[in-house]
Every structure is written in structure tokens, then in C-alpha cells.
Automatic annotation (TrEMBL):
Signal peptide residue numbers: none
Species assigned in the record: Aerophototrophica crusticola
The protein, known as: DNA gyrase inhibitor YacG
InterPro entries linked to this entry: DNA_gyrase_inhibitor_YacG, Znf_NHR/GATA
Gene Ontology MF annotations: DNA topoisomerase type II (double strand cut, ATP-hydrolyzing) inhibitor activity; zinc ion binding
Length: 70
């Protein structure tokens, strides 16, 4: 095990920051700092602010799958 202080600092777990406000995350609401920030994030997902990109190719492949007769 290395005893170099620089290497030990790199081995410690890094504190994660809340993706909404940047404060340190707490275990009860991880990865957020509070229930409020978790609710803000959920509201953004439900409101369509965040979107998972889907290519046209993905849509065609999915449609063909459902068009096939069993």
C-alpha cells in the first residue's frame, strides 16, 4: 500500500456534489443534498426539460419489431 500522501488523497472517496445546487450530497437523498433538490430534478424530468436522445434508427427498429406477426 502506498504511503505517499498524494496517492492516499487520490484513494479517498470523493464527496459528490448535488447536481441541482452543488452542495455536498447526503446519504438520505443521494445524489442530491435534500429532498427539495430531488423533487426539483423529478419535476424537470416530468416537465420534459431532460430528455434521453433517441435516434431515428432506434425508432424504426422498434416499429419493425411490433409489425411482425408472431
Amino acid at each position: 500500500m502506498p504511503t505517499d500522501p498524494i496517492n492516499l488523497a487520490d484513494a479517498r472517496p470523493k464527496k459528490s456534489a448535488c447536481p441541482i445546487c452543488g452542495r455536498p450530497a447526503v446519504p438520505e437523498a443521494k445524489p442530491f443534498c435534500s429532498k427539495r433538490c430531488a423533487d426539483v430534478d423529478l419535476s424537470r424530468w416530468l416537465g420534459g426539460v431532460y430528455r434521453v436522445p433517441a435516434g431515428e434508427q432506434d425508432d424504426k427498429a422498434g416499429a419493425e419489431k411490433f409489425d411482425e406477426d408472431p
